[in-house]
Amino acid sequence: MAKKSKKRKEIKKKLLHKYRLVILNESTYEEKISFKLSRLNVFVSGTLFTIVLIGLTTLLIAFTPLREYIPGYSSTKLKRQATELTYKTDSLVTVLNYTNKYLENVRKVLRGDIENNEINRDSLFERYKLDPSNINLAPIKADLQLREQVELEDKYNLFERNTQNLSKMLFTPLSGTLSQVYDLNKKHYAVDIVAPQATPVKSIADGTVIFSEWTASTGYVIILEHKDNLLSVYKHNGSLSRSQGDVVVAGEVIASVGNTGELTTGPHLHFELWIDGKPVNPQDFMDFN
């Protein structure tokens, strides 16, 4: 025990023994700076310096673009390009499959491979053939009232259609802050609505999906066709909930807010409204606040 205690005291004495570090002028031997040090102080200071150096290096690699120059780290730009190419490839494969299927059907028709029992038009016509003598062609009261209303509209509104009540029929697709408004001079036929990522985007009215695909410039795009020659366009979505040909109702979720496509600067919805093939200002028909 005495030996162990003595050994501990010697180690403690060595660790706490003071040394002086002196910096002298080589020519005059004048003392410039001096430090009192011990082995324990040097060990603790070196350890702390090493930890701080490792922490700064980790932060520099993790949160600055310098990590791209370190072997083993991939470039952010290359990742983005690879993702866009993956989406484009997937779209091209889908289009190619549709085209091949269409061409195969055309080849069958040209070769006469379609059998009569597959499409027997004569039997269908005979089955659903109607007898005109059994059909009542007299218009009902509601039909007469509708015809009178249409005749009055055509008489007094030859070139324009009344769209004052259209705003009462439309559902706001998304609530948020407008980062860019409708501007004909700048050829910006839409409003840009800023909202958090993955916020649901809703249909403005009952309609049919006529386009639901990925595009390079505007990312995920979905277009709905409504009654009265009304089209609604939703661009830069993060994802799409409906496919081409689907029937949707007003207020139904059709997509989510995203930041896809080359022409985007952040999560938002690019919303367009077209009536009779002409763009109109969506703010004239709905409130986005």
Care to describe what's here?
With about 290 residues, the protein is of the alpha+beta class. About 35% of the residues lie in helices and about 25% in strands. The protein is built from 6 helices and 12 strands. The strands form 2 sheets. Strands 3, 4, 5, 6, 7, 8, 9, 10, 11 and 12 form a 10-stranded antiparallel beta sheet that branches. Strand 11 (about 270-275) and strand 12 form a beta hairpin. The longest helix has about 35 residues, at about 75-110. It is elongated. About 15% of the residues are buried. Mean pLDDT is about 80; it is low at about 155-160.
Q: Figure out the total of helices.
A: 6
Distance between the termini: 82 Å
Q: How would you sum up the major sheet?
A: 10 strands, antiparallel
- Strand residue content: 15-25%
User: Using DSSP, what is the number of strands?
Assistant: 12
Q: Indicate the radius of gyration in whole angstroms.
A: 38 Å
The helix content is 25-40%
Poorly predicted runs are: 156-162
Shape: elongated
Mean pLDDT: 81
- Helix/strand/pairing category: alpha+beta
Order of helices and strands: HEEHHHHHEEEEEEEEEE
